[in-house]
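Q&A log
Question type: sequence-to-structure
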Amino acid sequence: MANELSDVSFWFDSIDDLPPIETPPLPAAVDVAIVGAGFTGLWTAYYLKQRDPGLSIGVFEAERVGFGASGRNGGWCIGMAWGVEPLLRNPQTRSRGVALARTLFDTVDEVGRVCQAENIDAHYAKGGTLNVATIPFQVPLLQRHVEHMHRLGFGDDDYRWLPPDESRRRIGITPNHGAVDFRHCAAVQPARLAVGLGRTVRKQGTPIYEATPVTAIEPGRVVTQRGSVKASAVVRATEGYTDSIAGERRRLMPLYSMVTATEPLPAEIWRQIGLERRECFGDSRRVVIYGQRTLDDRLVLGGRAGYYFASKKRRTIPSDDPKVVRVKKLVTKLFPMLAGYRITHGWGGLMGVPRHWRPCVQWNRETRTGWAGGYVGEGVAASNLAGRTMADLVAGRTSALTELPWIDDASRRWEVEPLRFFGAKAIEQFGDRADRAEFETGKPSKFWGGLFRTFVG
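Response status: OK
Response body:
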């Protein structure tokens, strides 16, 4: 079932009815121009049209719907975002943090509701996610985290500690000393979600101009390689590809994540692995890993990989890339029962990281331009919330969403090269060294872990 995006990700390779690219003639003007046809841009278009069906909206995409991070990620639709934890720790911002957290929880259900309402077969399954303690000293840390969240008013229906026996029944990862069961997470097939959203947006009457790179955004106008289009409002939703827009260099750092998928696994293997509810999973290491069980019984495992000098972006990452191979080796290390089973796919995608490591929704009422993104790898659900929020801002509506603490929380730009490269490599190196030291000694890494915290927070 190969298609022209088979080398982009397993998710695209598994779609046998991928629609052709659509490049209609450019309009002279639109009410709202949205740059980027990934999750953020598509959700914004979807909710804008719901709020005002009479709006003329154009979505402009350099490649095709879902080509970027939206069609390459690990398929976690998680009700969580970077930046929430610091808000919850600070008594002065705690109430705002709780409001954002609960809104993100509800967002996971909103994605499922839209999939059902719009007949988008994204293989949505809300099984939660398991954060496994793979080193004994992590157990009290994770238990204290659950207790802390309970003190803030969250309950067992949100966060629950699983003792080792129960955790091992749920997931056969090695080692496994217990896990936090976080209920607000769903596994999805992200490329099917993006393609389905694209179809839905088009049904609403919004054209998507694929193969139409935007080179500049100005108040009242977008400039594309095919010509200029006037717009009363412009929304940038370009995530890790933001520096392709004139004047936007160093806004977001493109960091790569590498992902793998096994062949479909037999029932006896899944009895050992678990994940009966199609739970997502990860552990507490700094160089993040993430995984899920797909609808066709594959194990998908991914891990953060790093940054290329001068924000270089690669159209595709081959399965034999050393950073992909590194993730492949983790599969049998964490799940020894998979020795002898084939890993059929390996790919990579980039995410957008702001300098302060927090997502943002920003809107300028005077110029009527805005942007949303910077999800640091947790954007499948957060992009839905960002799209709903941006739709309210563009429409001039005041709502609970437009009061959330990530509004206008923009960071400064990243440093120039080579400082950016050295900083990114230092973060990667410190995180990797801290993780390895902890696995080898079974104790917290004070030195390397401290350096990592200094850079990332």
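Response note: The longest helix spans residues 94-117.
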